[in-house]
Write a structure and sequence with these properties.
alpha/beta, Rossmann fold, 6-stranded mixed sheet, 4-stranded antiparallel sheet, binds adenosine-5'-triphosphate
């Protein structure tokens, strides 16, 4: 469960998020809003990449300020740009590195890596050099690297921007199938069908909060 207590974030003298308050308990939550409305900042608050200037963010009761390491283990984060999170030269090494860092090795770890590669259409890519893959392929590698760690909560910041229709579908099917809670920041409103709740950000505040159809209508009205 995500709990936000009067959270504000100031960056470079600008109030980027302003008094965000509430609890997020639904399994599939979408975040939409205009460019610069604070969506990425909000997403980064959830795994402690950005800390509140005032107020607090708790994940399953853990304060992101004081329990950052535990929060990061719980919250998988997928960036819009896969190059922000790919660190190893080959696909197999990169997808396996998080497990290695957690001292998970041997057959069980290899099986988890193989399953993650298969889920994202990367079987046979193990020895390919990541820098030689396309942007969309790299995004699938980054997603596999996050999912292999089986995070309890998954935060995705515009994950489908680089993806073609097939891989977008693959990502959305994965999000629909997994047990974990999902927070999806997106400009692709079609991706929100079937979501439980959508937050509409506007100028650092939550301007609307409701089911997808209603929230998207509110977002369209704000943009017109
Ligand atoms: N370090 C910083 N210093 C000053 N302003 C910042 C800083 N980081 C972010 N901002 C500003 O904060 C605002 C919110 O940025 P954020 O990236 O959260 O928006 P967003 O809703 O994700 O936008 P987009 O849809 O374009 O990705 C923007 O106006 C941005 O310029």
């Amino acid at each position: 469960m995500i709990s936000l207590d009067e959270v504000s974030v100031r960056r470079g003298g600008t109030l980027v998020l302003d008094g965000i308050h509430g609890e997020l308990t639904e399994r599939r939550i979408g975040i939409v809003g205009a460019n610069g409305s604070g969506k990425s900042t909000f997403a980064r608050l959830l795994n402690g990449l950005i800390l509140p200037t005032s107020g607090s963010v708790r994940i399953d009761g853990l304060d992101t300020k004081t329990a950052t390491k535990d929060v990061r283990r719980r919250v998988g984060f997928l960036f819009q740009n896969p190059d922000n999170q790919i660190v190893y030269p080959t696909v197999g090494e990169d997808v396996g590195f998080g497990l290695k860092a957690r001292k998970a090795t041997g057959e069980a770890a290899s099986a988890r890596v193989a399953a993650a590669l298969e889920r994202f259409g990367l079987t046979g890519f193990e020895d390919r050099l990541v820098h030689e893959l396309s942007g969309g392929e790299r995004q699938m590698v980054a997603f596999a690297g996050v999912m292999v760690l089986e995070p309890r909560l998954l935060v995705l910041d515009e994950p489908t921007t680089l993806l073609d229709l097939r891989n977008t579908r693959r990502v959305m099917e994965t999000l629909a199938a997994i047990d974990q809670s999902v927070i999806l920041v997106t400009h692709d409103l079609d991706c929100l069908a079937g979501f439980d709740r959508v937050l509409v950000f506007s100028e650092g505040r939550i301007a609307h909060d409701g089911p997808p159809a209603e929230a998207i209508a509110a977002y369209r009205a704000l943009a017109s």
